[in-house]
Amino acid sequence: MESKGTVESVKDGIVSAIKGTGDILNAVVDTVSGTLANTIKGTGVVTTSLIGTLSDTARASIHGVSEVSGDVGSAAKGAVIGALQGTRETGKEALATISATAVGAVEGASEVSSSLAMAAKGAVQGAVSGVKDIGVDSADAIAAAVSGAMKATTEIVEGTGKTGASVIGASSEVIRSAIQGVLEVGGDVGSGAKGAVLGVMQGMKETGSEALETVGATAGSVVKQTSSVAGSLGKAAKGAVEGAIAGAKEMSLDVTESASAAANGALKAAGEIGAGAVTEVRKALTGTIAGVKVVLKEPFKSKSS
After folding, report:
1. Which of 19, 93, 114, 239 is least buried, going by the fewest C-beta atoms within 10 A?
2. Which pLDDT value is given to residue 21?
3. pTM
4. CA distance 162 to 147
5. What is residue 286's three-state secondary structure?
């Protein structure tokens, strides 16, 4: 990006628009889409050279909305929708656009001492809403937003010198917010679960057994968070396994092991919820999913057993 001048221009434009109309979402969408459209028209940049611009524009959006004490989640949502409208990308390029914008939104939230989880939630909502008319699968869009949010969150937490539990806790918050965000905009919990697991796998650094542990933990978190917002646990568990399978194929992991790790992580989480949850999740995961035979560990006891 031309950098500081354009960032300030975006921030100031959003502040002015919000003060004039009071509409945070449309102020961000219009400013971001217009800025990116003009940037592309003026420079002819391609997606690979646009990544920094997307991230910076999203950060500027968060700063602008924060300046008027607005909702960071709405800012992140508007930044993603505006980025998709301004770049007019489709397919893989649209997914790259979503991911880069999510990174900027979470970074911006950190810079103004706001909630990283709310920024992640808004980015996911923007992804779901923004791809409805451009032929991009919603689960892939959610995965792109989660991947970008996870990448930024991990770097921010590790930058404070904290690792381990702090990173896991922050990641759990991103997943919780992602599931909430999907349901709040009328999205399918199965797609949300698939996208959440796939996004975490795309953004994680682990390989081998550590990767499988992350897959299982993520699937479990998806089930728990779905329960907290009264969503279908069966759909969430199945979606989590589908995400694990898709992620394994991308990362050259053993597909059967990845599917089973997700399934057993989901089943373990269901056990912490109750006997009814275990029955629902086990039923959803018994058999073959996306062409892969799922292996569930037995016996399994719920906390209510």
Report:
1. 19
2. 84
3. 0.86
4. 20
5. coil
H/E element holding 293? strand 292-293
Q: How many CA atoms lie within 13 A of 294 on its CB side?
A: 29
Give exposure, 194-214, as e/b (b: 16+ Cβ within 10 Å). bbbbbbbbbbbeeeeeebbeb
Vertex 200: Cα angle to 258 and 148 (nearest 5)? 155
pLDDT one-digit tens code per residue, 100-124 = 999 999 999 999 988 888 999 999 9
Distance CA 244, CA 260 (A): 9
DSSP state of 156: H
Q: Which of 225, 221, 232 is nearest to 276 (CA)?
A: 232
Of 190, 290, 294, nearest to 233 by C-alpha is 190
Name the one residue in this structure whose structure tokens are 């300030």: 8
CA distance linking residue 292 with residue 305, whole number of Å: 30
Query: How many helices, marked H, and strands, marked E, lie in the chain?
Result: 13, 2
